[in-house]
Structure to design on (264 residues):
């Protein structure tokens, strides 16, 4: 089992390296994961995406598709790719303390 | 088996050569999926695949109900007028449910994600198409040679 020290605690990670228990997540942990992923600062727009993903996951048990993310979070596709370079859905999910999204779109 | 470390895919060039709904979508989904994973992607539309980037046609692509064994439909039944339109509308409804956008919207989304979109020069010449026929996401009309230049260093996927 992989673990990581985040927010001053040793937390368990899943096979993809994402938090195993999303209830252990907090904003400080999000900032630390973001820094590891090469995003030095989380802006208001980053938080809009992260919070939207968490709220969808709480209700539906999976992260939203990129299409839904851009339609409902108010962050368009181009911006989304700038905010989370090298794989927006995957990166945003990791920073949000969620498992890797299952969908293809 | 040789114990070589697997190299992650960094770049894909996807060729779309068919103009039916089921011929176009796999390429679009793979290009979009590549960008979602942070993989560089480009799309090259050739022959009837070009319909997917022609403004007037892109959102009217149909499922082939004749000569398509995957439909599990007898040929004569598939040939009944309206059958292709019916199958197409059913499939589009199912796609919408799992958040697969219509072709036009999907191309915008893929282009906005940073993927490049090209039309095949030979096909454009053959069908006498003009720049104005294409959707604005098309980055250029290029020859096969230029396609290979752009695809250098990546994987080529033919659909």
């Amino acid at each position: 089992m992989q673990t990581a020290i985040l927010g001053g605690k040793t937390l368990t990670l899943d096979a993809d390296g994402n938090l195993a228990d999303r209830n252990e997540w907090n904003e400080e942990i999000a900032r630390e994961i973001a820094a590891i992923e090469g995003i030095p600062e989380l802006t208001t727009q980053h938080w809009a995406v992260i919070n939207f993903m968490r709220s969808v996951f709480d209700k539906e048990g999976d992260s939203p598709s990129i299409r839904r993310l851009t339609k409902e979070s108010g962050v368009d596709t181009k911006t989304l790719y700038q905010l989370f370079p090298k794989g927006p859905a995957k990166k945003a999910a990791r920073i949000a303390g969620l498992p890797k999204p299952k969908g293809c779109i | 088996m040789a114990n070589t470390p697997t190299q992650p895919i960094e770049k894909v060039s996807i060729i779309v050569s068919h103009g039916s709904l089921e011929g176009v979508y796999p390429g679009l989904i793979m290009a979009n999926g590549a960008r979602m994973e942070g993989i560089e992607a480009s799309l090259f539309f050739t022959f009837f695949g070009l319909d997917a980037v022609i403004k007037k046609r892109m959102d009217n692509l149909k499922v082939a109900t004749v000569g398509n064994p995957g439909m599990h439909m007898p040929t004569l039944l598939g040939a009944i007028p309206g059958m292709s339109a019916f199958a197409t509308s059913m499939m589009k409804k199912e796609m919408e449910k799992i958040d697969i956008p219509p072709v036009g919207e999907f191309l915008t989304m893929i282009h906005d994600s940073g993927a490049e979109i090209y039309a095949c020069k030979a096909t454009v010449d053959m069908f006498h198409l003009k720049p104005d026929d294409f959707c604005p996401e098309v980055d250029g009309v290029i020859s096969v040679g230029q396609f290979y230049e752009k695809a250098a260093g990546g994987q080529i996927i033919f659909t």
About this structure: Chain A touches chain B through 18 residues (CB under 8 Å). The beta strands of chain A are 3-6, 9-12.
